[in-house]
Amino acid sequence: MQKLIQRILLPLLALTLGVTTLHAQEVGWTGSVEPLGGAEYELRFEAAIPSGFHMYDMGPYEGGPNPTVITLSPEAGVELVGSVEQRTKPHRYFDQMFGMEIGTFSGKALFTQHVRLTAAQAKVRAAIEWMICDDKSCMPPSDTELTLVVGAADAQGAAAEATTAPAGDESVATPAAATERVSDTAATSGSVAGASETTAGAETAAAPAKDAAGSGSLWSLIIEAILWGFAALLTPCVFPMVPMTVSFFMKSSGKPALGRFRAGMYGFFIVALYTLPIAAIIVITRLVGGDAVTADIFNWLATHWLPNLIFFAVFMLFAASFFGAFEITMPSWMVNKSDSKADSKGLAGIFFMALTLVLVSFSCTGPIVGSVLIKSTAGEFWSPIVTMLAFSLAFALPFTLFAFFPSMLKKLPKSGGWLNSVKVVLGFVEVALGFKFLSVADQTYHWGLLDREVYLAIWIVVFAMLGFYLLGKLRFAHDDEVQHVGVGRLALAIAVFTFVVYLIPGMWGAPLKALSGYLPPLTTQDFVLGQTTSAGASVSVTAPLRTVDGKAPKYSDVLYLPHGLEGFFDLKEAEAYAARAGKPLFIDFTGHGCVNCREMEARVWSDPRVLELLRNDYVICALYSDDKVELPESEWVTTESGKVLRSLGKINAHYALKTFGVNAQPYYVLQGRDGRMLVEPRGYDLDVEAFVDFLRRGVEAYRAEEQGR
Predict the structure, then answer these.
(1) Could you tell me what percent of the chain has a pLDDT over 70?
(2) Phi-psi group of 168: left, alpha or beta (phi > 0 → left; psi -120 to 50 → alpha; rest → beta)
(3) Range of the domain at 407
(4) Is 598 in the same domain as 666?
(5) What whole-number distance in Å separates Cα of residue 702 and Cα of residue 696?
(6) Each residue of 358-397: b (16+ CB within 10 Å) or e?
């Protein structure tokens, strides 16, 4: 049985932790405006060339390769001084195939143009053409267009920048576009592509590309990882090794100072063994594929049904292991080989002792490490590295701490049946957390299997059983009989049953704000006390929201807004309705698997002032970045690289990255007519007062804009 589990589980774990590296073959272009003094300015165009490729310089090459060409079209009010210059020195060599000397760029290339401003503000449109090759083949020639605004941005003390935009699109350079975006060209169809023509042409500043999830999410992951690290120490595989290992170092070193140094290095190697492998995967993926590719990988891990079902199965297997059904261990040959080298002197011996600890304790730490990594894949690129570092630091801390203060070893409790109880408690927690992944797959694909009340019922039963276990009413195969309940177990049981009581009102629609990020949305609940509609929506006293054509909003049969709010899920429809209603547009970039989105909706949107503003002063448009609804072929979007985006979520995610430079949720944009942004967008922030101010400033900006027409 154990060998069978190893053969099944270890490949699943490898698939969970492994990241398939993809090769990004686009050139990312950014543009900026730099004041030179007076009315003189310098336009700067920088190309980020993918690793392993080179781009040809400006030539010209008659009968040779396609050179890089930048054609500028200034509007009235700005004059070109001279021509475009290539500031980066190209690598020049004689090409035998073309029979001429050519120049190429690798990595990055900078081009500049001197201009003179004769008005308060003016635009310069740049049409860029280029071609890249590697040692074996060349990509087809590519082109893009971007527009730089000269004058206004400089008065605000910000460098104006722009990124690649679709050919024929007037993407205006503003401080918003200061980060690199993908150079994919969306077709003018699909749920957001039709509206991108106006939004991309917005003349007001978009928000800087940043982590829309905010810092709160990462800190919560770090704290959770630290708690898991300390929990791993209390398992029967690890706890008895703490005093044994530290005593070994103190006795074998001869001098206390040397023993402390060796024990410190032992802790350092433990941290490195847990952190460096996942760090290497992330860094290599980012270097080879770039930010966009890494984002695609983690978005796939976080939202696709296959990894989520695998994660769910892995959590259930881990829980079964903690309950005593079987033991997950590393292959004996690996453990024995590492242990045989631990007798070596010097740092090599210490390293192999640390490796032996990691391998031997795998049956207890493996499920915890897998849980930490799986949860952190829903975060930003570096979240798995940071969380694993936090876990390993907490795990390795006692080995160093007890080496510095050996007398503390006497205060450690003795090993016993309580260690197995810790494993069982962790098993219950694994079961509860595992259902989150099944819930994400259920929401993104609209299966309807795990609605909110079903999810809550499972949690209530799981934690109730945990409470009975702590009181000794449930026993597993490896448990000792509980003769009496100690104060510690009683305190834990009280805390668990208190949590169960807190969950129960959620079966009738209580918001349970503290758990909003982990539960399915209230809109999936069939019955909410005091409300008569399904899906938990408030009873509307007016007619249901309709589009300009009198139809129900697209996707409103499968997508909902919280708190009974009504809105749209297609940007084109929302923009048309907002123009007719004379209201600004509230664009919510969200996702089914977005924990921070649910927190914002439960803790911020629920404020009466926020709900009043959203309901009365805005037209709401929720764009889900992870929804798997397959769109008709007429609405598919084809990127410049030839990739066809077929699902609603992928098209929305592409639009958010291309237009606003964000690939995380939540992200809120207030938009006026013609795609103009009213105020700087916001990401994850639980400050209710700031969010109310954000909405009010948007309304004021919209009214001022309308009065100026």
Answers:
(1) 67
(2) left
(3) 224-417
(4) yes
(5) 10
(6) bbbbbbbbbbbbbbbbbbbbbbbbbbbbbbbbbbbbbbbb
